[in-house]
Amino acid sequence: MGISKKLLHNFYSNRAENFKDNLDGAIEYNEFYQEKQEVLLKKHYDKFVAQEQEKLEPIRLSSVLLKSEVKIQVAEKLKSYDEKDIWRRKANTQTQVRGLAKATTDSDKQKITEAYETQLRSLDKRREEYEHKVTASISSKLQSVCAKDEKEQKENLAKYEVALAESDKRCKAEHQKLEVQKQANIKAFQIKTDAKVSKASKKYETTLVDAKKYSASKVDQKLEKNVVLSLHNLTMQFGGLKAVDNLSFDVKKGEIFGLIGPNGAGKTTVFNCITQFYKPTKGEVYYEDKTGQVLLLNEAKVHNVIKKGIVRTFQNVELVWELTVLENLLVAAHSLFKSNLFDQFIHTPKLKKEEEMIRAKALKVLDYLGLTYLQNAYPVGLPYGILKKIELARTLMCNPRLIILDEPAAGLNDAETQELAVLIKKIRDEYKVTIFLVEHDMGLVMDICDTICAISFGKMLAIGTPKQIQKDPAVQEAYLGGE
Amino acid sequence: MGILQILLNSMQFIAIISLATLGIVLIFQTSITTNFAQSMIATVGGFISVTLLTKYGVPALASYFIAVAAMFLFGVFIDAVIIRFARHVTPVGKQMLTMGIVLLLTGLIPLVFGNVVMQAPKFSNTIITNASNTLSFSMHNLIGFILAAVVIAAIFICLKFTKWGLSVRATASNETVAKMMGINTRIITGVSWGIAGAVGTLAALIYAPLTQITPTMMVSVQVQGFMACVLGGFTSFIGPIVGAIIIPVLRNIVGYLGADTWKDVVVYLVIFLVVLIKPMGLFGKKIVKKV
Amino acid sequence: MGQSIALRIKRVLKHPLSSFVILGIVLLLVNVFYRAGIIQDIAFVRSVARVIIYSIVAMGFSLLLGYAGLASLGTSGLIGLGAFLIQLTYSQKGIPMVISILICLVIALVVGALIGFISLRIEGMYLAIITLCLSTILVELFRIGWGTDTFNLPRVQTFFGKEFPGYSSDGGLLVRDVMYYILVPLFVIVAMLTSNLMRSPTGRAMLAMKDSDSAAKAMGISVLKYRLIAFIIATVYAVFAGCLYMFYFRSTTYTDWGLALSLNILAAVIVGGSKSLLGCILGCFIIFGIDGMFLQNIPFFQNNTNFIYIISGALIIIVVMFYPGGLAHLWLDLKILIRKLKLKWRHYKYGD
Hints:
A: Rossmann fold, C: 352 residues, mainly alpha, ABC transporter involved in vitamin B12 uptake, BtuC, two-stranded antiparallel sheet
């Protein structure tokens, strides 16, 4: 009977999670849609403005003096001519340089210099001829259009200004129109999204209630108000070796929690127990997920942990070497893709939309960490500090709730560690996540952690604020060397 | 025909395949390469020996010795020239290299040795029978078995008790660390390839008289040697030998039961089941990576 | 105006799928040329068909090896399985062509799933050998159960009840033409689907799984799911190719599908580049095509059949040693080389 209850609970929990995911996904896509609409508006508006300018051109021409307009246009043509001509001149110079380097006798050198000057003169002559030709052709083209004297110019200028004003009005009207349409699109989409959201919300709420009905009541009371992760008597035993021994602590929401201990104390094992890479021998790991439910993490499969909002980095940087940096981030968001295999075989619009959105998100994350210039590079051969940053970027892709960092400062120098400290704090503040880190670098830990837990040989030594830990005699003895 | 006769008949194949499999596992452990070319090199050795014997009238023992020695050198040569240059290649890539060698040699053998199909004489043509004539056993079989047993035992003893053996096992466990410990891993791998070549040639010499001398004559031996490694476990030395005993016996038992066509299927089935239960082979051990 | 059309054509050509379409057109032309008498020898066309069929297998194998990092030596057994299954369903039981193929694909799915589950327990070399064992067992069971070694397929004459266009009662050749024209578009479609899959989240997930098991799991990638997908696709492709083989060549014996073919396909994929589809096709062309298409017509090679082995062997060794990424890697290197040369020339001419 207990089993069926559990199954029902799991069933409803998963459904609730799915609905929440749909909710969040719809909201996110809504934002993305708004941004896209903004981009589209700009594109259309620019096109319209260009069209208006084209229409106004003849009037504008009639309002300027022939001479000045010809001058301007000829100058432009000459500019583009010069852009090409500069290459010919460079080639000429280079030929001379090469020739002089090879030439042995004075007479040869003389010949080469002469050839250079001849070519230079011919290039100049060609430019002159071009100038003449262009001036003539533009003049004849604009002859009939431009104003011939000041009087005509003044008249036409007035006309032009009128036309310009009207055009401005039209542009503004068009902008208005586009803006209105954009707002309408956004609103319509918002309505659709709201409908989706409310539908999903309702389903979510009811399913949540159902889930709670079947949930093991003892799980619910295990977490205090502000706690997101709680370890209860966690024990991990490998054969005869107790790597983690009866460890218990709470991690509060929104704090930066540090786990320290000498080498071999079992820190990474604790990690792996939380993220379910190891199944704890004894004890429980309780976690409050995005739906506000309390889960027993022990029951989750490794690859489902990320769906609950827990992401982690690795001690040895585990990036995918065969993918570019951007693609690494796309993989990190794998759990966000809802397209099934069929969609992926034929690249349906659904898949394309998702890819576009997640790609934009990845670029934003890269931008946030200052790594945009690396988006198409492969991780192979990049500096270690950068690799760690990419790992960090990966964790931000899935809207995490709890980020677990495994020795983030390993291999970084002092300056980089400082940067990392600032970055971790920034991420905590802006992404509103809880951060749990394991670290050896005392400076970093004492600097940014709100709570520190010190362990040794798998057992808890002390837990408290950095100041408390620094003063604790047991910790000093085991770890800090009695400083 | 009883179980005893079946065992006696299996002895020469046990000898042949255990020699082949020893070569494969030795190379696998020291160069992390699955050597598809093991039996091809052996075939070349067989060709050398038979050609010397039949075409040039070199006395039997001398031609055997020359063949074995030549293939030892050839093995070292292949390691030095090809495998060493492929340090950066993935394990699959190294397998492909050995496959390329197989193709090369398949094409070169007829060019070098001519297209005439030769016949190799047995070590001895006598057949021993017991008193009641119920068991028979060829001398060739016996000699081959004893040779193989001696060689394999010698190598095992060396592996376990000599400094060289220790170096091999160290290199097999972790080449980089072995190098740092002062072991000249280049010599170790080279010698391993050489031994593999020599040992394979010995297998060819035992096998050649039982079949026609063609470039592809040792292919089934190669496959069975491989199967023995899988059955026994690539990570041990004793495992493949055990596998090399099981497979020929199994085949002969099936053949005795009258189902010749089922020989291969049964062997594959057994291997399939064994590996399902023991994923690293009967004696293999798993290496777990720390996360 | 002309410029924008040129730009649009350029954009279409840049699309990764366009190369397959172009390849398909070229392949179709092969048979057209044959019919028109430009290509004289039917063996040439048959060789091309063989390359196409093996390419389908190689593409599935490339997904398995290059993306999911899983080794399998049972490939040829699976093709054989497809050939024998289609003979069973189409020829023996008289089930219409398309449904026969679908049945074979369903069976392939089951076999592939089985191998996928096994792959969770067994790794690396052992897995490769196990696939060999499994596929050999299946093929041998067929052979033993059937009692014959050779399997034949009658000519496909009707398609959903209608006769093939241009089919005449004596025209075995004409039907083969139609088969060829069916084969090529199927090949192109398979190539495009696989290419799409490789450039989708599934492809990336497989690469992640290959490079780092743990990171993949931490990112939400279920190793079981993607191994299953990889093996199922590879198996389905192999069986599908086997069915097509039977429809085109119409006869086979069980010795066709031994370890040697598996190793050749592995070689083709590695020589061509294990992550590139065009590379696989090129690899198949080199290993399976050149012999039948060109070399047979040169007397030197006809007399010394061993030379082909030497060339293939040397080629494999050279590619693996110097271009571990296969010929696809060579192609990329060439592009970089050309760019470098261009820069050098610029420096020479303009001195900057």
